[in-house]
Amino acid sequence: MDKFMYVAMSGAKQGMNALAVRANNLANANTDGFKSDMTQARAMQAFGEGLPTRVFSMIESPGTNFSSGPIKSTGRDLDIAIKGDGWIAVQAADGSEAYTRAGSLKFDNTGLLINSRNTPIMGDAGPIVLPLPIDKVQISPEGIISVRPQGATAEVIEEVARIKFVNPGNDQMMRGEDGLFRLMSGLPAPKDPMVQVESGAIEGSNVNPVHEMVAMIDIQRQYEMQVKMMKNAEEADRASSSLLRIG
Fold first, then answer.
1. Fewer beta carbons within 10 Å, N or C terminal of the chain?
2. In this structure, are residues 22 and 237 in contact, taking their beta carbons and an 8 Å threshold?
3. Under 8 Å between Cβ of 75 and 59
4. What is the dihedral of CA 129, 130, 131, 134, to 10 degrees?
5. Is 180 exposed, middle or buried (0-12, 13-18, 19+ CB in 10 A)?
C-alpha cells in the first residue's frame, strides 16, 4: 500500500512543478524574444536502504523551445529583430556575457545602449556607449550603429559601434536563472557576421497561450487524480486494518 501512496504523492508534487513551468510560459506570452520551456514526465527509481522497489514520478524541463516568435513592425529606429537563428550579446548583472533575442533597445542619459530590461548591449569591445547628444540612430542589418550628432546636417552619419551577434547553435544554449541564455560550456560565444537583423521591428514571444492553457488544465486534472488516488489508498489501508482487527 505504501508503494501506491508513494507514486501518487510524488505524482501530485511533480504536477505542481510542471504547473509552475507552464504558468511561467503563459506569464511571458507578451515578453519580447521570450522562448518557452518544455516539460516531460518520467519514472525515477528511489535509491537508499529499503527503497530499491520504490519508483516515483519526476517532472523535468528537457530544454527550451527555440522556434522564432512573430516579427512585429514598430517603426522605431532602435528596435531590431533577428532573422532566423542568432542571438544578441548582452552584459549580465554579474558582468558576464549572456545572450537574448529581446531587441527593443534604448540608451540612458550616459549613452549606454540597453534593452527593455535595462541590460547593456555588447559590441566588439564591450558594452556600447553612444556619443551624446545625437539626433538620430540607425542600425544596419549587420548590426552597425550609425548616428547623426545633434545639430549636424541630414547627410552627416557616423558609424560608432557594431552590436555583437552570435550563433553557436541552439543545442549549445541553456537558460540561466536571470532569464538570459549562455553556452553550456560557460565560455563566451564567438561573434557571427552572418547573423542579420530587421530594423524597426521586434520579435515577439513564441509562447502559444492556447496551448499553455490547455496544458495547465490537463496538469490540474492530473493533480486531482493523484490526490484521489491518495484518498483511495488511505481508504484501502483503513479497510485492511479493519479486517485484521476482525481476524
1. C
2. no
3. no
4. -160
5. buried
- The helix/strand/coil state of 69 is coil
Output the pLDDT for position 154. Answer: 83
Task: Give the mean pLDDT of the chain.
Answer: 87
Q: Minimum mean pLDDT among 55-59, 74-78, 95-99, 140-144: which range?
A: 55-59
Distance CA 89, CA 127 (A): 9
Distance in angstroms (rounded) separating the CA atoms of residues 5 and 39: 24
Q: What is the pLDDT of residue 2?
A: 60
CA distances (Å), 20 to each of 27, 38, 54, 212, in order? 10, 11, 26, 11
CA–CA gap between residue 230 and residue 29 (Å, rounded):
35
Contact assessment for residue 115 and residue 121, using Cβ atoms and an 8 Å cutoff: yes
Q: Is the peptide bond before 133 cis (omega within 30 degrees of 0)?
A: yes
pLDDT band at 55 (very low <50, low <70, confident <90, very high): low
Q: Is the pLDDT of residue 223 over 60?
A: yes
CB 83 within 8 A of CB 33: no
What distances in angstroms separate CA 190 from CA 25, 91, 181, 205, one per listed residue? 29, 15, 14, 25
Given a cut of 90, whether residue 63 has pLDDT beyond it is no
